[in-house]
Each structure stands twice: as structure tokens, then as C-alpha cells.
Amino acid sequence: xxxxxxxxxxxxxxxxxxxxxxxxxxxxxxxxxxxxxxxxxxxxxxxxxxxxxxxxxxxxxxxxxxxxxxxxxxxxxxxxxxxxxxxxxxxxxxxxxxxxxxxxxxxxxxxxxxxxxxxxxxxxxxxxxxxxxxxxxxxxxxxxxxxxxxxxxxxx
Length: 156
Hints:
mainly alpha, two-stranded antiparallel ribbon, 6 helices, globular
């Protein structure tokens, strides 16, 4: 994992259970086969949705904010598409997000390529992930953990 220009190695213990199966203790902030913590991806998505910036500009601001060496604008596009697929599950956390992280007033900026249904999805998603703009690690880790707990799947 890379953060603030440093490569960090995360060691995850593997437990042998009584029934012979194995369990890995996996940190909530880490996604498999992804170089950055989950909150970096969520921050990039929320920033793009709530600003008039292009994906390239957003990616550059993510690099600067988190001290990364690289972050591709195409990553934002791919990550957003996967988040839209999980939107029906994420909506369940709406009340809990408001309770734990407060109300966030963030507007979705319209884009030429979005039709009305895409704009509505963007509004819903932004309303759910906008707290990551205020507290990236805490919110991102919390959301990834809640999603895992409920679905036994990684958020993306």
C-alpha cells in the first residue's frame, strides 16, 4: 500500500480454525490488489461528484492531498461504476451515516454526458459518500467495514 509517498507493507494474520478452515484478519481500510486505502478511492469519487473538476484535475488533487506518486483519472471512472453497482446496498447506511458523521450538504455538479437517471444516482451516491471529504480515513474505513459485515464482500 502506498500513502504519503511511502510504501507500507501490511501483514495479515492467517488463522487455522478448529474445523480446518483458514481465516484471514483483513484491515477494513485495505482493498485486495489495490495500492491505496479505500478512503482514497472514496475521496476521489466524492470530490469528482461534488466539484466541476474533470477527472484528470480531481486525480491530481487526490495525489497532492494524500501524497501519492500516481493516481489515474481512469481509476475514478472505474471506481464510480463499481460504486453505482453497490448503491442499493449503500443506501441502507444513510441514517447511520447521518447519525455517525452528520449531515453533509454537497451538490452534484451536472455533466453533459449524464442523463436524468445517472444524475439521480450520482446525487444518491454523493449524499452517502460525501462525509469522506471531511474525514477520509474514519468514514472510508467505517463504510468499507459495514459493507463487508453485511455482505461478506469488499466494497469494490
